[in-house]
Known about the structure:
Helices cover about 35% and strands about 30% of the residues. By secondary structure, the protein is an alpha+beta fold. The longest helix has 24 residues, at about 345-365. It contains 10 helices and 18 strands. It has 2 domains: about 5-150, no CATH class; about 150-365, Zn-dependent exopeptidases (Aminopeptidase). Zinc ion (ZN) binds near residues 164, 171 and 179.
Amino acid sequence: xxxxxxxxxxxxxxxxxxxxxxxxxxxxxxxxxxxxxxxxxxxxxxxxxxxxxxxxxxxxxxxxxxxxxxxxxxxxxxxxxxxxxxxxxxxxxxxxxxxxxxxxxxxxxxxxxxxxxxxxxxxxxxxxxxxxxxxxxxxxxxxxxxxxxxxxxxxxxxxxxxxxxxxxxxxxxxxxxxxxxxxxxxxxxxxxxxxxxxxxxxxxxxxxxxxxxxxxxxxxxxxxxxxxxxxxxxxxxxxxxxxxxxxxxxxxxxxxxxxxxxxxxxxxxxxxxxxxxxxxxxxxxxxxxxxxxxxxxxxxxxxxxxxxxxxxxxxxxxxxxxxxxxxxxxxxxxxxxxxxxxxxxxxxxxxxxxxxxxxxxxxxxxx
Length: 367
Ligand SMILES: [Zn+2]
């Protein structure tokens, strides 16, 4: 960390403290580091001395907070918000004066905004970062240390799983059922399945903040991080779905959809299809898609609608890694729709997809 970044950061934190005190208990401070430096710098210098004396380790972390004596560290909740760039930290049973009495410190690298407010629960901080990070937390002697890591530095391999549509975009619809809801139900089961796998051995008292992604150990590979474009019913732009996979960058990208007849009318047409990227000269997208299709057909006992060239689909065309877009079945077929609504069938889908991803990763890593 360079000195300026460190100073800016302590300054940011100090400023937050000052602002919210100034505005009373209902509010909230919202300020970025680039604002007015003048008088604040003196305060920073004062606080930096004081903080460094109390906790020399603080500035080597992104953020360091003192935990009030009455708060059990396990009760501090940290969640990563949907777009993965924001974290919410809730500390029970504290008032606005807490952040005034115990200023935070840290180098704040990658943190572009920090806000604070209060609810009946206690205090709540929101961190906004300049990209997607994995947060690790450490609790040591009544102090909470938060550190941000680039995903690629935490994981030996990464997957992105995409639940098609969401929010305003329902996708296909038939019999009062929306495609977006089925996609989401299946993806949540995929997450549960990955979450149930062997978690990495946490180094001593360091733990991941991982409610928006899965992390597990795969033999022969190491630690795998699995990211999801959405886990709730929200709108996500196609560009953002592809960008998540491309920027991480993920090793494999899989999207879950439900098919429909072109007219949307009820029909006897049924079966499972997988779209792949024809323009992928390595043929890995096709290979991966074939594996996904085989496993789905085996687990579901559905009819094969085969592999389909998918380059007209934005996320298939723009993915820079092997991509497969699974059309699980037809929402416009009554029998298939009923099956796809059942937990059991959805779990079979999830199992087929998780296995395909694991197996194909092994395969490409061995080459
Ligand atoms: Zn769809």
